[in-house]
Here is the input.
Amino acid sequence: WQRLSLIRPDAPPSVPAREAVSQVVAIAGLSVRIEYPAARAFPAVAVFRHLEVRRETADILFQLVEHEGRVHLFRDGDWILSCAPDELPVMLKGQMLIEVLDRSAYELALHAAALLKNERIVLLCGNPGAGKTTLTLALVNAGFGFASDDVTLLDSRGHGIGLPFAPAVKAGAWSLLAERYPNLDAVPVCRRPDRRRVRFAVPSEVVPSSPIPIGYVIQLRRGRDAKACLEPIDPASALRVLLNGAFAPGRELSGSAFDTLTQVIGSAGTYCLSYSKLDDAVELITKACR
Here is the structure.
């Protein structure tokens, strides 16, 4: 019944400091204090360690309480949701994304990975399963800067602000990244709400969360026997790519947001990448971004 939100847990009890682990993280100008039960702090605390800041106060307080095999999340004293212990990092990442989208100033949130090359953002767009996370990590290994693997904000000038949450690598990609990230097999396995297994590849460095011009927009099309090629796409196709999965404040695309999109399309190189092998994709994008 709690899982179905038919029963709401009581307010979080006070926990002695010796029995809790506290962490303050910041992303897109928003700071969040997370208080974990000591027994459930790992691996979640490690997943967000690269976002930690030294700060006494925070904009939002998340408190986690374990009860009868479930972990309950309270936001500023109000219950939000519950999850299984192995879903905790995924749940926290999702809730922090919601907070950023609700509270940050931006024109549009794009469902796109963001990398940095030559002081320009490279956006990777594609449907679920297109390989954004895997290709993002492979490009980081090849020397690109990491800004985001899932959501990128656009400001009023059409510049990108990445949300550098640690990428969640699905089980099918573990072997593909084994040579580039040999320690990935030692990372604890977490689960998404759909029960798919993931491992978080925590970045060693992230691009500063300041607005950066968009240099390239690349649509990913991965196929088992696809011939590797990177071809330009027309403005209408590029607009469709950027709008796919996008989120606007107020849930409506404003005129200013549309103008921002056309500005991005007019100034950036827009391409479609077809590929089957990861190495081919990395080579083509590296050459295009020189």
Notes: The longest helix spans residues 88-103. The chain has two domains: 17-103, 108-288.
